[in-house]
């Protein structure tokens, strides 16, 4: 795409990195805490809150996500899907390490 409708890659970054980079950096830094959250059935409510927080951050920082649609429900679904995937991958990653 050209012109004003082109996607600005910088709109997908948080502090110069993809949101996933910042999230995994945080998980790694607090590995013992996340090992308890992801490794125990009682961690499910915390995972849900974490997913909601990541979705909020994604909607707030990613201009491209905000520009997808004027219909809030579509943006909510996309942000929730991406955040859920990040948390699921982080859980598997921390259990394997």
Keywords:
97 residues; 70% helix; globular; disordered N terminus
How is this fold's topology laid out?
Elements: E1 13-14, E2 17-18, H1 19-29, H2 31-39, H3 44-61, H4 63-67, H5 72-96
Account of the protein in words:
Helix content is 70%, strand content 4%. The protein has 97 residues and is mainly alpha-helical. Helix 3 (44-61) crosses helix 5. The radius of gyration is 15 Å and the shape is globular.
Brief description of this entry?
It contains five helices and two strands; from the N terminus they run ββααααα. It is mainly alpha-helical.
- Largest sheet, strands/sense/barrel: 2 strands, antiparallel
* Beta-strand content estimate: under 5%
Ends distance: 41 Å
| Backbone structural class | mainly alpha
Number-wise, the strands total: 2
Give the number of domains: 1
Mean pLDDT: 78
Rg over C-alpha atoms, rounded to the nearest angstrom:
15 Å
Considering DSSP H and I runs of 4 or more, what fraction of the residues is helical?
over 70%
The low-confidence runs, each spanning 5 or more residues with pLDDT under 50, are: 1-5
SSE order, as H and E?
A: EEHHHHH
Helical region count?
A: 5
């Amino acid at each position: 795409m050209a012109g004003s409708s082109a996607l600005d890659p910088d709109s997908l970054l948080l502090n110069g990195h993809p949101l996933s980079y910042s999230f995994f950096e945080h998980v790694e830094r607090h590995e013992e805490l996340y090992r308890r959250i992801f490794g125990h059935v009682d961690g499910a409510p915390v995972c849900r809150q974490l997913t909601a927080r990541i979705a909020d951050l994604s909607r707030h920082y990613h201009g491209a996500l905000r520009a997808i649609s004027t219909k809030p429900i579509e943006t909510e679904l996309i942000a929730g899907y991406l955040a859920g995937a990040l948390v699921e991958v982080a859980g598997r990653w921390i259990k394997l390490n």
